[in-house]
């Protein structure tokens, strides 16, 4: 496995022999009791979480991203005016966050931040303005002024939610050459070439993936083998699987399946999607049905088979994340003001709720502090699949 692959697969990277792993929790502070970003530690044997501590006071840090070596954290500040992106140094001895820089997101209501595999650029999705922005990362993890900003155009069939573009997430291809932006308002996954040295995006020809009208693509995830790409669609409660051609960045739809049981007829909005570090399973969350749907991934063709739809203890699961060993899932219950953990059965993919819970006001994002060593369980599986 190459050095580049190690960086790309941050989801399967962790400290060997670690007993706990720190994680940070983004929240909404407006009209809530939250004061900013919180920190906890997850016990990797039991799923217990330590008492959360306020790591930094900041306005509406609704999405956070820890850098690849665990030394810095970046957070959007989601507001109805021009948003901000804040950079924090992670104090190694305490886990507290020290703000070191802040830049405009060049858009309204930034809702997503990710880091390219080289660690050179921040990628931002601005929801209300329907735009995406690239901010280069400078010395000492500081954020430089925006190098590129692109506004999407169009609308789709849902008059309330799709009257204009609404960029909801932005990630890179595993090799970092391309950028994918999910726009809920126009039912498209936009594709761009990334010049990582200049921090510039250019449209990848006429490449984009069109979702069914009214889908509302929200979040995306690549399979660890780089061959499959998954999108969770907020407005019609579905997941779309694509094949991915890394040479051309072409996305080819494989299938679209529901996240809900047939018996459910209420209102629902999906939220988060994660592929298990082993590549064997995929999980997607439902707000309304209040559940996490678990699927088995066919390693040959990328199709999904429903395993279960878990509801135990789940309340408005706006976000969740899987720790790098793949043994536990941490779920952020926004309306309940709590985080709970599930043990993941590596053989079946099923979720088993643990008795552990912590309280944090309006939690909406979970990201782990990761160190660059690979767990043997996930590495073994990926080697078997030929990555």
TrEMBL record:
Gene Ontology terms describing biological process: glucose metabolic process
Pfam families the UniProt entry points to: Lactonase (PF10282)
An example Gene Ontology CC term for this record: cytosol
Protein EC: 3.1.1.31
EC class: hydrolase
Keywords on record: Carbohydrate metabolism, Glucose metabolism, Hydrolase
Listed Gene3D superfamilies: YVTN repeat-like/Quinoprotein amine dehydrogenase
Superkingdom of source: Bacteria
GO molecular function: 6-phosphogluconolactonase activity
Similarity remark: Belongs to the cycloisomerase 2 family.
Identification of the protein by name: 6-phosphogluconolactonase
